[in-house]
Amino acid sequence: MNLPLQLDAVVAALRDGGVIACPTEAVWGLGCDPFDEAAVMRLLAIKQREIDKGLLLVAADVDQLDGLVDWDALEPGRREAVLASWPGANTWVLPATTRVPRWITGDHDGVAVRISDHPLVAALCRGFDGALVSTSANVAGEAPARSEADLAPSLRAAIDALLPGETGGLDRPTPIRDARSGALLRG
Question: What CATH code would you report for 3-186?
Fold first, then answer.
């Protein structure tokens, strides 16, 4: 199957409430529609992850964050620093609007987001026409899959679709910073 057909199949799975796997900048990730509570709960069950930790969103461009991020809650200099880092392997915790569900923010008032420059992640978000949940493809506490071959058989059995490809080659998952202060939360 060629990439456009595979991409269409994965987007269709997302629209049907599915959980998918795809390569990201450093590791393989799991994804779903962030506004589909049942899909997010399934993803959390697959990962055995607590809802209170929150989940990261990826998007293809800043417009896909419309209505999700309260840009006005950031000082102009902080907003400019965030925007200057994208697209790229930089994740920021930004002030969330009330539109972002608790199953995404967890126990936090912010939402972690990244405008990805990984071609498959960006294509997936464009095809879906919105931001997607993105979290490492592993059970919480276990090492994340660095390649498609590293995906655990139990994880493969639990997902609805897989978009084959290569990671972006980063050695570690993207850094996460607090957009309000610039503080590094994950290096």
Answer: 3.90.870.10
* Cα–Cα dist 82/13, whole Å: 31
Q: Which neighbouring-strand residues pair with 28?
A: 23
Domain layout of the chain by residue ranges: 3-186
The 10s digit of each residue's pLDDT in 53-92 is 999 999 999 999 999 999 999 999 999 999 999 999 999 9
CB of 158 closer than 8 Å to CB of 19: yes
